């Protein structure tokens, strides 16, 4: 069974490139990024929003917990360089 979700990082500094973001997501063992879209913030040129489609890594020990948190409206935190982290939400499609 292929399990995929569309996720969102609502606020991301514009200096982060697509390759860096996808690399951080994949190295965290969340899953494989299949599609990636950047949306600039309307009134703040220094930030952007990222929407991405992920193929979940079901062998990750936190897979079920992460999916449950997202489906209940909570976020998961991806630490990519302590203390820097991104809050990831289920995208509202």
Account of the protein in words:
- The protein is α+β, with helices and mostly antiparallel strands and 93 residues long.
- It has a domain at 1-48 and 85-93.
- Helices cover 20% and strands 46% of the residues.
- It contains 2 helices and 5 strands, in the order βαββαββ.
- Strands 2-3-1-5-4 form a 5-stranded antiparallel β-sheet.
- The longest helix has 10 residues, at 18-27.
- The chain is globular and about 40 Å long.
- The protein starts with a strand and ends with a strand.
- The mean pLDDT is 93.
What features would you highlight for this structure?
globular; 5-stranded antiparallel sheet; 5 strands; alpha+beta; 93 residues; 2 helices
